[in-house]
Amino acid sequence: MHLDLVTLIVDDYDPAIAFFTGVLGFDLAEDVPSLTNDGRPKRWVVVRPPAARTGFVLARADGARQTAAVGDQAAGRVAFFLRVDDFTASHARLTAAGVPFVVPPRDEPYGRVAVFTDPWGNRWDLLGPPPRS
Fold first, then answer.
1. pTM of structure
2. Which of 30, 59, 72, 128 is most buried, judging by how many CB atoms fall within 10 Å of its CB?
3. What is the rounded radius of gyration, in angstroms, for the C-alpha atoms of the chain?
4. How far apart are CA 10 and CA 95, in angstroms?
5. Is the pLDDT reported for residue 132 higher than 90?
């Protein structure tokens, strides 16, 4: 058993794909036409970190309730945790790409961590291994 997909509500598909693939370096696993339950057109868009089994379904907001959830997936808490092998290089790359870090890097017993926001306002932990002593 494994967790396959997690839904992330976004305001539009193409900017979301651009962020995940161009900035975070995820792979675009699927992008195919689909239909809502009531027959309206939508897309089935899945992005995953390279070689990962778990990914995101990028779901375009449909209606007022979903639109209100864009950028607030976890009610202001950190919603997503991106583990990287090279924290320093990843932090520098994301910073150079204009990703806003709202909590600067710090050392914790579980590793290096900094908090950034995606283009919609969701909070993410960038996590790396603990610094060598």
1. 0.93
2. 128
3. 16
4. 22
5. no
